[in-house]
Amino acid sequence: MTLSMGVSGGISEETAGTGEVIFPEGFVWGTATASYQIEGAANEDGRGPSIWDTFSRTPGKVFAGHTGDVACDHYHRYRDDVAMMADLGVQAYRFSMAWPRIQPDGSGPVNPRGLDFYDRLVDELHGHGITPLVTLYHWDLPQALEDRGGWTSRETAERFAEYAAVAYGRLGDRIATWTTLNEPWCSSFLGYGAGVHAPGRTDPGAAFAAVHHLLLGHGLAVAELRAAGAAQVGITLNLAPISGDDPEAVAHIDGLQNRIFLDPVLRGEYPADVVERARRFTDWSFVRDGDLDIIGAPIDVLGVNYYSPTAVRLRAGQPANPVHPGSEGIAFVQGDEEKTAMGWSVKPSGLTELLTRVSRDYPGTPLIITENGAAFDDVLADGRVADERRIAFLDGHFRAAHAAIAAGADLRGYFVWSLMDNFEWAEGYAKRFGLVHVDYASQRRTPKDSALWYREVIRRNGLQA
Ligand SMILES: N=[N+]=NCCCCNC(=O)[C@@H]1[C@H]2[C@H](O)[C@@H](O)[C@H](O)[C@@H](CO)[C@@H]12
């Protein structure tokens, strides 16, 4: 089954908020994870160090000094985890491959034991009738490449395409949908601009160079995957609807959050207003003739990660938000909506707004929600996690996604973040996004009430009244 296969069947009448909601026939329901967040086995079977191994060992960068050394020990427990997904009725599974497992130095010699793991994982998935969707890069850049400039260097883009070809060569016969990058916005603006993610650099100019080389890596990898015969290729972007009374402030943040990625990938050009505003930080000399043609090569599916909307307003004297270069005078504000354990506003209608905007402004590319979910302060008691807030969160967002489909969005699937609690980057293990609870001391998995609820959603292909 390919994930951007056409869906058929009508849409039931949209009942706002409470009624029965049935998704189109063939709609794909899945869960998502990422290599550094769940695998562990950081120094096993030839895996090389990544920038997150380095960053998590840097004092003060990650909550309580947590690292991904063990994480959910998925590297050893993958069979049970796949069986657990099958028991939950999960139809598709989005996971990432660890580049440092496959090429420990990010280039040159391939580590066959690294490929062997993904071989075993994919065969286990198929054995349970679960469709794999792979992310080639979910932030664990080989440290050796960072030592040579990382994503600020064009060389990294070129090495990424080689890695994509190696991965496809071993697994292309069993994985139909290949996405290149997860959230280049995080890799660039959090990793090189604000320094709150690996590699921890705080240089806006470097962030813009990283944006470009991440996108160039995407484009070069798409070319390799196409040449090798990949059925579906795509990319995953974290996007957000931007609201506010001041059009210039909204345009500025929409440009840095959304259009700086959507326009190159889907239109083959950088948004002119973003290019101009960024000239304070970069001369864009890293862009070479032909790069945008490479970046803008057609894709088959766009992965959309949505968590929360962004609201901005002008505020005199407001210093720039380091995540958003040049945002002096722009305040990021939150309404009185419910907040998750991450402090993020819960606004399902933001998903409808986002999906309809992307469909309107960038028509013609099927969409998949590759991540949506929430962290709450889950409590395991008597072998159960009664995570009613997560059920309500997902119910609302599923209905919002359905409303977007009813409004014409070509949405093909939905992957809940995350299958299980895992290493939440700078928050370490303090934040739990999983449908399944993980006791890290024992590595015991316990499906939360939301997992059991999701099983019924999948079985019904929709929501009850
Ligand atoms: N306000 N606000 N912010 C909304 C989101 C900010 C950007 N962070 C993400 O999207 C990351 C994405 C990542 O792929 C995954 O690896 C992370 O575990 C999840 C949860 O954090 C999300």
Q: Tags for this entry?
A:
465 residues; alpha/beta; three-stranded mixed sheet; 15 helices; 17 strands; 38% helix; binds the ligand N=[N+]=NCCCCNC(=O)[C@@H]1[C@H]2[C@H](O)[C@@H](O)[C@H](O)[C@@H](CO)[C@@H]12; cellulose degradation; Glyco_hydro_1_AS; GH; polysaccharide degradation; Beta-glucosidase
Describe this structure in words.
It is a single chain. The chain is an alpha/beta fold. It contains 15 helices and 17 strands. Strands 2-3-4-5-6-8-11-14 form an eight-stranded parallel β-barrel, surrounded by five helices. A three-stranded mixed β-sheet has the order 7-9-10, covered by helices on one side. Strand 15 and strand 16 (444-447) form a beta hairpin. The longest helix has 25 residues, at 204-228. The chain is globular. The structure holds the ligand N=[N+]=NCCCCNC(=O)[C@@H]1[C@H]2[C@H](O)[C@@H](O)[C@H](O)[C@@H](CO)[C@@H]12. The ligand N=[N+]=NCCCCNC(=O)[C@@H]1[C@H]2[C@H](O)[C@@H](O)[C@H](O)[C@@H](CO)[C@@H]12 binds at residues 34, 37, 182-183, 186, 238, 305, 307-308, 344, 371, 417, 424, 433.
